[in-house]
Amino acid sequence: MHREAESQLSSDTDLEDPDGKNAKTGKGVAAKKGKKALGDKAKGGGAGRVTGPGWVNGHHQENGMENMTLFEVVKMGKSATQSVVDDWIEAYKHDRDTTLLDLINFFIQCSGCKGAVSGEMFRHMQNSEIIRKMTEEFDEDSGDYPLTLSGPQWKKFRINFCDFIAVLVRQCQYSIIYDEYMMDTIISLLTGLSDSQVRAFRHTSTLAAMKLMTALVNVALNLSINMDNTQRQYEAERNKVIAKRANDRLELLLQKRKELQENQDEIENMMNAIFKGVFVHRYRDAIAEIRAICIEEIGVWMKLYSDAFLNDSYLKYVGWTMHDKQGEVRLKCLTALQGLFYNRELSTRLELFTSRFKDRIVSMTLDKEYDVAVQAIKLLTLVLQSSDEVLTAEDCESVYHLVYSAHRPIAIAAGEFLFKKLFSHRGPEEEGLPRRGRQSLNGSLIKTTVFFFLESELHEHGAYLVDSLWECASELLKDWETMISLLLDEPMPGEEALNDRQETALVEIMLCAIRQACECHPPVGRGTGKRVLTAKEKKTQLDDRTRVTEMFAVALPLLLAKYCVDIDKVTNLLQIPKFFDLDIYTTGRLEKHLDALLRQIWEVVDKHTDTEVLEACSTTYHYLCNEEFTIFNRVDIARSQLLDELVDKFNRLLEDFLQEGEEPDEDDAYQVLSTLKKITTFHNAHDLTKWDLFTSNYRLLNTGLQNGDMPEQIVVHAMQCTHYIILWHLAKVSDGTSVKGDMVTLRKQMRAFCLMCQRYINTINNAVKEQAFTILCDLLLIFSHQIMSSGREQLESLVYSPDSSLQAELLNFILDHVFIDQDDDNSTDGQQDDEASKIEALHKRRNLLAAYCKLIIYNVVEINTGADIFKQYMRYYNDYGDIIKETMSKTRQIDKIQCAKTLILSLQKLFNDMLSELGFNFDRSSSAFCGIKELARRFSLTFGLDQLKTREAIAMLHKDGIEFAFKEPSPQGEGSPPLNLAFLDILSEFSSKLIRQDKRTVHMYLERFMTFQMALQREDCWLPLISYRNSLQAGADDDTMSVISGISSRGSTVRSKKSKPATASKRKLPEGDSSSSDAVWMNREQNVQTPVMMHSPHLTSTVLRDPKKMRPEDSFTATFTMPAEHRRGSGLMEDDEEPIVEDVMMSSEDRLEDINEGMDFDTMDIDLPASKNRRERTELKPDYFDPSSIMDDSVGVFHFL
């Protein structure tokens, strides 16, 4: 905090009132903060409640209201500020001491202090002593005070507080403020309070002092104006001839000017005292809000009274504070400067400041606070308007690229800057140009936009550029007539024509402008979604859509004809019809242009095999074939003719291609592939079931299996086409439009195709195997038991569940093709050095894994098959951690116990793999064993903090772990630990998740597997058992003893109770019903004797029992009774599902990492190439666990999933 000496006025400069009373400045003191009900009545022997003529405690009594303090009046805000101040002034004229005391208490109470300054204190104590006394009145339990309290009442209070100070000075500006008493006392008090270590005092007094300073600046400005007027009057009178000159008027004007000068000097002294006593210290206060207040007000002073304040002596404070660590302070600096640069007269006086701090302003366009960055760009726009020479080309370029920012306000501000810089300057030669057309001014500006777009080298973000310029240049971007002219018309003599690259960019910009005008919302990655349009915006949208339809219904066929062979241009141009108002084709008598468009689409389909172009054609037909419009029949006929030709050509080519005994050449294969690709693309969005393509595709796939030499792309597209056939068939069966026997046919086709895909999974080609796997997973999910949901029981015969062999093949595919190192992936054909190829390959593997994980969480395959997935969690965390974690979370929602069993099974699999690799004499400090233990720790974190919710699951997890640890005998013979005993060290990571009574029960179950000799072992090889037992005993009841104390007490018990019958040294497990082993267990009370503590006088056998002869599950009884029905059928969401969070009470290390591990559900954003920005990746990221995500959006009929 600041030193007490700061901002203190020395005693020899204290200002005296006419009565000889000193108003001395106080010092800041160490203070106690406190809180009581704000607005409590002032204490201190009636101070603050002095009665004057018609005045009661800072306000006259109205309508019988209770007497209120000035603070309460301002807080309630029921009286006009003007009347409150007038009443106070009237009272001040009668008794200024007591009324001024009310004002002092007003500032004290506005700070949240419950105390009040009494008349005695005011007369005999210095300000520092008064402040110290008031500091003691604060409540230590809270730091709240009026300026920090939330709610509409306190927000209004802040406004009323500032208004009160401004009105007070304005009403007193002609007399009272010059009485050398009121203002001196207030300034002295506020200066002392602003130096207090109590934040409430410092904050409130700083705000009051700054508003007081602003009010004084207004007074000084008025005085300056009056002085100038008086001077002009004096000069005019003096310049008159002697006969007409009025000497008495000259004397009056001189006297008036002298009084005004004296008042001006006095006001300047007051402002100087506030500036040096408060501002200079508080603009660098520790509290950001206080610093912001200072900077905001100095900006007001410089704008109001520029002659006095707009100089480097004051501007430097704003420049320095632009480096403040808090965004709100930097924001105030920029807004203060905007007010100065907005005025052209003032901006010319900022040249030195601009040259000194320009680089800082430019760097703030990349500020981490979005609001600050926006205001920095707006400030640079004002700087640009004031002078073109201030900003260099590099400065401008640093703003230009922000038009592609994902944050829309930043992008719009940058778009305005770009528009002002590039498009606002018109030369004299451009004045006479036409308004529209190729030779218009807009034509030149559109070319400039295209050049900028190409130079920015972010070509896939044309929608972002258009959105950034939309608010300031929408008229330019909606000049589609000029754009069409630039694309179709021949250039004029001497005019430089657009090259191919520039035409492609112009087509993209034109499409983005059409989309922006017709959809009226920003592109993906900007904004939170569609907003509700106003009536005016809706009308503009309809008008723009009508213009687009009328203009491009004529121009689009011409554009397609000109650029028919250009893939990029055609793909963009074919997206324009989806923004048409199709009624206009009829109402505007444009049918001939529709026919021309359909002919051009036919030509495009015939000439192209590129997937993007074909998808654009298919989508255009899908939009135009709308039964609601009269053009439907015309378009439907054209579509049917196109598909008839494609199907006939495919069947003809297929017969030749599959001729026995003939080797198909490459040309035949290409023809078959191109035709099949077109049919497949159209089948995605159109129902082609009447052409019966299943037979030919199935024949093609079967031949490929038999011969093994079918080109991979033919097989891939044949699979995809068959997949669409089955889905369209299912759609017809589901909505009831199918004929009798269709369901039987669908069932046969679906099962035959699934078997075909299963066979293709075992082929050699990677692309074919991946396609077969993806389609098979989709079909298994679609035709699972969930197909009967929502009242579709009639589809029960279509349910298809994978058998164990198919489940094993799917799992093996995942293990062989997903969980591989990047260098082992050969699917990128030697392009591993290309980073984009690596990302694309990883994205493909993530989709494969997600497809299989959906089968787990939707109960298509057994949950325990996830063990092989879960065990890869640590090793492939960066690549698939988010998918595996989400799968665990969803699986736990289905069945907590089965999920826990799956987790422990995954750890057992890793443990067995380690034994196979290192042998049974492995080192427990090895990286392999530590990795398994770390994975167990990560698994334990996912169970959350609520131990009661996971009680059964954790108990079963320990049960399976204990049985596994003692399952295999030692390969070294009797007396050695079991082969898997070290697994108990891994299992101990889950001990903290057991509640106290369950720890005791698990401990008893553990001892069923132990001989008495095991409990005595202390060698290193037995440490896992010792540590596990200790973890179960930690936190248990006091009657649970350690290993040694338990044995010792047992020995003494044997000696003292010789009358008890002896028991065998070997413990026999009681026989029980094995069917109840997993349903109930741990139904043991504390008085049940544990095996180690049983009376055994004849300790002769230490032979390790054969675990294979032990049947622990036969005696596994429990406290909890689980439902008899299978839990996996209970649905995906449970009300008591716990969040995946960290148990902060665990004893393991690496807590900071665990917090992220437990809370972060979405750790990867690599699903798109690196050129996509972060926000866009987030928006486009697929939902791996949404069953509807497996189908194309354009197939609108699959609503039944």
Automatic annotation (TrEMBL):
Record GO terms (molecular function): chromatin binding
GO CC annotations on file: chromatin; chromosome, centromeric region; cohesin complex; nucleus
Subcellular location: Nucleus; Chromosome; Chromosome, Centromere
Location of the SCD domain: 279-364
Keywords noted in UniProt: Cell cycle, Cell division, Chromosome, Chromosome partition, Coiled coil, Nucleus
Any Pfam family matching the protein: SCD
InterPro entries, per database record: ARM-type_fold (IPR016024), Cohesin_Scc3/SA (IPR039662), HEAT_SCC3-SA (IPR056396), SCD (IPR020839), STAG (IPR013721)
Coiled coil: 220-273
Region entry Disordered, spans: 1-55, 1047-1079
Family label: Belongs to the SCC3 family.
Complexes and interactors: Part of the cohesin complex which is composed of a heterodimer between a SMC1 protein (SMC1A or SMC1B) and SMC3, which are attached via their hinge domain, and RAD21 which link them at their heads, and one STAG protein.
Biological role stated in the UniProt entry: Component of cohesin complex, a complex required for the cohesion of sister chromatids after DNA replication. The cohesin complex apparently forms a large proteinaceous ring within which sister chromatids can be trapped. At anaphase, the complex is cleaved and dissociates from chromatin, allowing sister chromatids to segregate.
Protein name: Cohesin subunit SA
Species this chain originates from: Maylandia zebra (zebra mbuna)
